[in-house]
Amino acid sequence: MTVLPTLFAGGMMVVPVVVEGPTVLDTSDGARIRILFANPDLLELMVHVPEWRDADHSSVRTGVVGGGSRTGRCSAPTWIEGWCCGTNTA
Fold first, then answer.
1. How far apart are CA 78 and CA 84, in angstroms?
2. pTM of the prediction?
3. d(CA 61, CA 57)
4. DSSP assignment of 4-29, as one string?
């Protein structure tokens, strides 16, 4: 899956100014994104921001996670729990 179907359907792509946890979290919440495309490293940055627990993730309907190999523990389960299970929604 790529962003192309989203763009063809009239959606837009939002790219954070810098790739750091607080900026990415602010951008995703501020833009009220519905589909999140991310790699494991980006998710790792997001879930370790102190504001993660209080952020409003209610607009996100689905996410696409993929990318290169990762060493160590991946935060994707934490991210999935936050959005899918409603533990981190406002």
1. 10
2. 0.64
3. 9
4. HHHHHTT------SS-SHHHHHHHHH
How confident is residue 76, by pLDDT bands cut at 50, 70 and 90?
Answer: low
Two tokens, residue 9? 């359907």
Question: What separation, in Å, do the N-terminal and C-terminal C-alpha atoms of the chain show?
Answer: 28
Amino acid letter, 85: C
Local confidence band at 71 (pLDDT 50, 70, 90 cut-offs): low
Q: What phi, psi does 19 have (nearest 5°)?
A: -95, 85
Decide which of 18 and 81 is more confident: 18
Q: What is the DSSP string of 46-67?
A: HHTSGGGGGS--TT--EEEE--
Torsion of CA 48, 21, 28, 34, to 10 degrees: -60
